[in-house]
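quick one, two chains, predict together pls
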Amino acid sequence: MKILEAIELKKIYKKNVAVKGISFHLNQGEILGFLGPNGAGKTTTISMIASLIPPTKGDILLNGKTILTNPKPLRKILGVVPQEIALYPELTALENLRFFGKIYGLKGNKLEKRVEKVLEIVGLEERAKEKIEHYSGGMKRRINIGAALLHQPEILIMDEPTVGIDPQSRNHILDTVKKLAENGMTILYTSHYMEEVEYLCDRIYIMDAGAIIAEGTKNELKAIVSKNDRIVMKIDRYDKEFDSALKSIPEVEGVTFNNEMFTIIYKKGSNLLGNIFRLAEEYQINILSIDVKTPSLEDVFLQLTGRGLRD
Amino acid sequence: MGTVIYGRILQMKKNYKTYLMMFILPIIFSYVFLYSGTDNSKIKIPVADQDETVLTKQFIYEMNQSESYKMVIMENNEVLRLVEEGSVQLGIILPKGFANQVANGEETTIQLVTIKDTSDIISFQSVLASTFQKMIGKYQITNTALLAFQQIGEDINMSSLEQRFSQLLNEKWEHAMPMEVVSTILDEKTSFEYDPRLQTPFGFMLFFSMYTVIYSIGEMLNDRKYGIWDRLIHSPLSKLQIYMGNFVYSFMVSFIQIALIILTGRFLLGFNFGDNIWIVFSIIALYIFAIMALGMLLVSFVKTTQQLQAIVPIIAVSNAMLGGAYWPIEIVTSKILLTISKFVPITYAMKAVKDAVLYHQGWDALVLPGSTLLFIGIILMGLGMYWIERKVA
């Protein structure tokens, strides 16, 4: 059942079109993923849904009713985890949570119980009396999520909640998101980390340059590249001409270079390895490792845009 | 609204040292400036008293009663040195035999030590002459009275009579004068009453409070920086509640700061700000509202607290200079500056305070300046909020 729906949402800043009239919906109880590179328009879309900024065009419906004229019903059931750490650094985690609980009308015993519960969810009960400014990046992110959970929202929007943190904190956050969804919360999760979206989300929208370029379940999206295979190759040095030569192979659908690694999407069944070794010899490139893999969501993005998610 | 204030108070508790300084330093500086200002407002005149008699001491005492000069007793050489160095424009020497000359009705000489004649010296000579005349008058009246008692043979202690007579004469002199000459300047606009004991603490109080008001309103910029503003916006709180919470907090802090300055002056330092303390507090309340609105306008222009911190001193100092917080606006003659001062909230606050305390106008003092402050506040607040909201959208 559709709980939230965006219809032809558009946002224009002066001459810059940040979001180009996108439509999507959020079903009750699902984790919906918004995957896209930085600058794709994910945060602007979220800001419009959270009624922080008005759309230039389009509508947002909550259970079939517009929230543009009266956002109050949405605000009561919505929790937002912003991309930045939106906490008072000089206050303790406990004081921050009490404050954010109060803005949702919680008080007294109920407030204290919710604060206690949220600290348990984010696993920071023992560090609750420490100031936020003394927390590590991962701990800040966890309290940042906690502050959005105090009023037990029905819908939770999470904007890149794992940016810049250690793997341990990331795993904790991903597990927390899974548990929240298991308990019936509807979650809209944005990220440019393909693995996170692939791990968490039931349905996925892929965004690029302010538009939705693909949508569906993981399997539906992967089907886009089911006729393809992927080669991940590590080389000793980058050579622009070698890059161009790879792209000019007729069977190749897309090439990206990141962290000394080439990712090459090509038509299944093609004998590409021979061509790659020949070009490496021609351009005097040493191949340090080479791996043939099945396609991921990253490959879907690569196939659709010709670029990598983190380019 | 209450929750926003609760959040601010939590932050205040964490930064209590800053707030303590914010409350205490303006009190100290307002009154330090007052004392230093009062002292400096008198021109120091070095005096060498070679005669060292009761009469010369009386003369120095009388000179010190003038509003413009303060006599500083020192050695003869020191007086000459200071004048030669140019540290002072002039000095005076009361020569040996000064008292005898006066007692015998002989021509009396007071040496004026100076390098060149200036209008200031002429003005000092005039004060010197009138003070001397006044003192001689008292002296002669006393002596005549004593002579009269001696001649009719009254059996009284002449020494204590002289002392008491002289004392009474000093106390009653002004009231006993049958006629008083009052100078009136034809252009009444240029005539004004100046009381540094009012001007300095009120001027500095209004000046310092500008920082407190604007910086406390500027806390909203930090909320934006940390993303807390967005959290507040997508909560069930209305924008009006969020703004009102910030305004009430800013008003509270600023009002407490100003009230502390006034109450410290009144109850600890014995300053009399007039009987109408509630009128003064009402003026202050309207002034804070106008400055809060100015703060909102500035917040709408800048993006960070650092930018605000760069602008506020310029705005506060120029406002204080234009609005008569540093010095009485009545001494400003430039028409351009006087026109600009009409757009500055501090002008109206200073005027209302003076009218209430100095001219005892009661609640009437509040009507025109108060409504102007309210008007300025509403206009600036409207513009500030409009631009902030436009920037967000």
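Chain A has a mean pLDDT of 89.
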